[in-house]
Write a structure and sequence with these properties.
By secondary structure, the protein is an alpha/beta fold. The protein folds into two domains: 9-187 and 203-209, Rossmann fold; 230-448, 3-Layer(aba) Sandwich (Rossmann fold). 35% of the residues lie in helices and 21% in strands. The chain has 14 helices and 16 strands. Strands 9-10-12-11-13-14-15-16 form an eight-stranded mixed sheet, sandwiched between helices. A five-stranded parallel sheet has the order 2-1-6-7-8, sandwiched between helices. Helix 11 links the parallel strand 13 (335-340) and strand 14. The chain is elongated and about 80 Å long. The N and C termini lie far apart (61 Å). 48% of the residues are buried.
Amino acid sequence: MSPLRFRDRHAAGVALAEALRPLAEGAGVVVLGMARGGVAVAAPVAQALGAPLDVFVARKLGVPGIEEVAFGAVAEGGGAPVVDGVHRFIGLPSTVTAPIVDRERAELARRLRRYRDGRPLPDLAGRTVIVVDDGLASGATLRAAGIALRRLGPARLIAAVPVASRDGTNDVAAHFDAIVALNTPEPFPTVSAAYDNFAPTDDAQVRHLLGGGPQGTDFGTEPSPVDPEREVAIPTGDSPSGRLAGDYGGPVSARGLVIFAHGGGSSRGSYRNRYLAARLRLAGWATLRLDLLLPAERLADGDGAFRFDVRLITGRLLAATRWCLAEGIPGSHRVVLFGASTGAAAAMGVGAALPDNVAGVVARGGRIDLAPCHLASVRAPALLVVGERDVATVRANRAAAGHLAGPVSLRVVRGAGHTFDESGALGQVGELVAAWLGRRHRIDWVRHWFRGPPRRGLVSR
């Protein structure tokens, strides 16, 4: 049986109303639409049930770099943020989460002023409250809504959505008396996949659906997209038409540029690389996430022939670094290379080739032992981060560290393996790297980061 699809949010609301009729008998029913898309679904539900319609505001707390993934949510009413397993799995510290919570609380307050003009929620004590959203994926915002609304004493609290993931439904269930979901596909794709038209609902549409008049007050503007990155294409240096795909982001006045080098085992788009890059941007650094293999090479790399070709990936990282310097990419006055696995060997090779331009080298689970001929020429400070359970890489890093010419810090993350997929491991890596870069930044960068005048033609203009 094919999954149920809806023409748009209004059609989904009409279908949802039919399923809710048996649960909404009698007086005292209130329908709350979750801002923003949930209000468009809730409007036809309220009309069909003959119930008053209002709005409830909660905000997802997105993981830095992978904002589409929630680590929790905040809801109106001033309660504590609700966090979930993603928060624990990554190991997000308060230094990362606190500014996100503050930003989302500010946006929550702005929306409340805009949608309700300062009016509070109606009295929900002893009533049947139906909370409607346009879909349930992780369930973070609905869980936060359930916790906040339960404190207001409703007789029954019902969550209603056109489409839901089974995992998300299970997580939300403890906070509601009943959950109505018309469609629970397995595996769950995305909420938008259940709709033919899933165009965003804006503030003006929410006010219109709630029966609000034209806005006569300046309630503030919606914040710009969080931490934007832009795609770049960089010449490979070994092919006239070859281009390396990358993602650049960061402030114009960045402390420096951290180039993430991935030999192929982990693409630049992995959640690990996206989070770590975002964590360093929060610390004031620009970042460039780079794939050192071309798409066709990645597809043909079943036996690792390309990603273990250290000469190939070193040449490409060297070409990309020179491109950043020549183009004057913001932050390229201080380049730090961040390599994972074989990408760390490439980072060491480039550190040796550009000693006056590379200010530091970071390796995460790095196979720096694959670049033995370059280690003695790497004068830049190096941070080697290795998982405790990755015994072979720990041993190889300890042996190779003694051959590096510059200062070396070897940090072993307890309980972690080669890819740092264990609970809390990735967050520890992010804090270790951010702290190390912060210390390097505070050191006299003229004397300790660049030894001698920069080579003409290689430093950014």
